[in-house]
Amino acid sequence: MATEISEYLADLILTALAHDGSIAVPTELTIKMFETMPARDGTGGAETAYTSYVAQTVACGASSKWEAPALDTDHVATSNHEAINFPENTGSAVSIAGFGIYDGANLLFLDEEAFEVPNGLAKTVDANNLVIGWATDSPFGYGFQTAIFNALFANTAYAARSSLVLAQCTTLPNKADSGAVKANFTGYADVTLACGASSDFDAIGDEDSLRMIANTNEEDFGVKNTGTSQTVTGYTIRDNAAALVAIATYAVAKPVEPGTKVTLKADSLHIRF
Amino acid sequence: MFLDGDIEATTTLEGIQYVDAFNVDGNGQETTGDEGTQYIGEWSFDASISAVTDATGVQSVGAWTFDGEVSVGATLIGQQFADQINVDGEMVDEYLLDVVTVGDYNFDGEISATADLLGQQFLDQTNLNGEISAEFSF
Fold it and tell me: What is the mean pLDDT of residues B9-13?
């Protein structure tokens, strides 16, 4: 069993990050039950049609019936504020393969969850039992996780970012964006990648069955180090408002020796969903 | 709905209407309802036998049998499920959240089970992760 985000949602997030798009607040999200799951791109699949079945909706926006997205130990999550009651099956029993969560016609999430709905029985998802959260090992900061969920489940749209700023760090921040120490060797400078209509990122593509954006050009973090050696442990990605988007940790800390510089190679920064 | 020695609970029985102040103890009970006449009256639970009657033709609860020190808590949507539940033995504190599975459960002896619900699976399985990689030269 698995839960996935759709290609539509992946594209929505990647577009807001690197291109000229935003994530609008849905009016409501629709919960559908499928006897055959659709693909990540929303194609295929067979929504159940048991007698009396009706897909259920959960409001978003100002009167959202989702809990306010919030940090839950090590990831941001939300859940349904009220029970979701699918009608009683008044016909033949059906085998459900899972759920799809939609914004209108656009698939957002897929959850494979097999169960039966026999004749005479209903299906209820109790309040707070439909929990949707970020993976605990996600490289994205809590602020970014919250911002995306606020757009999807609450009432704050996520605007397109005008740039993303990469910074080498000697000490990386935590996901709450505390404790960062940026590299400051002589000659160092952050790399700023333009987003929006004239993006420094390629168009969204596919990689390893995920949706992906990659930087177009080679970029230098300043010039060669003319000072002393400094060891960097990874880099941060922040948006044009300096809000932490993501943290990337090097498997092995890397020294920037005098006479060298740090260069981001073209088509090497891959952000994937 | 909790049926227990000293437990008092308020239950919403969809289709039977509301049963307020449902209070069942070892020797007696009190049941009141506030909508119509369809609420369940005269429930009785004691150490050995209990019988459930329904004055209005809802009928579906009549097959419940409780023996011994049984305690069962269930959320029932639609009273039609009730007659499929047979509880014997010493099972306590079952809380059936998922009506889909209620009808299939049969409790005997000390067996206990909790119905599956969507619940945590979502949390555990949610894959809103994303990956970042980059190639640098130094």
Answer: 37
Contact A118 B100 (CB under 8 A): yes
Q: Does B100 touch chain A (CB under 8 A)?
A: yes
Q: What tens digit of pLDDT does each residue of A77-91 get? A: 888 999 999 999 999
* pLDDT tens column, A135-188: 888 899 999 999 999 999 999 999 999 999 999 999 999 999 999 999 999 999
Give residues with Cβ within 8 angstroms of A161, minimum separation 6: A16, A17, A18, A195, A196, A239, A240
Could you tell me the residue ranges of all domains in chain A?
A: 3-153, 163-272
Query: Exposed e or buried b for every residue in A132-146, given b needs 16+ CB within 10 A?
Result: bbbbeebbbbbbbbb
> Does the predicted interface ipTM exceed a cut of 0.90?
no
* CB < 8 Å to A79, chain B: 122
Q: Please report residues of A whose CB lies closer than 8 A to that of B137.
A: 262-263, 265
Best of B75, B126, B135 to mutate (most A CBs within 10 Å, chain A)? B126
A137 neighbourhood in chain B, CB within 8 Å: 129
Question: What is the nearest CA distance from B91 to chain A, expressed in angstroms?
Answer: 24
Round to whole Å and give the CA distance between A108 and A105.
9
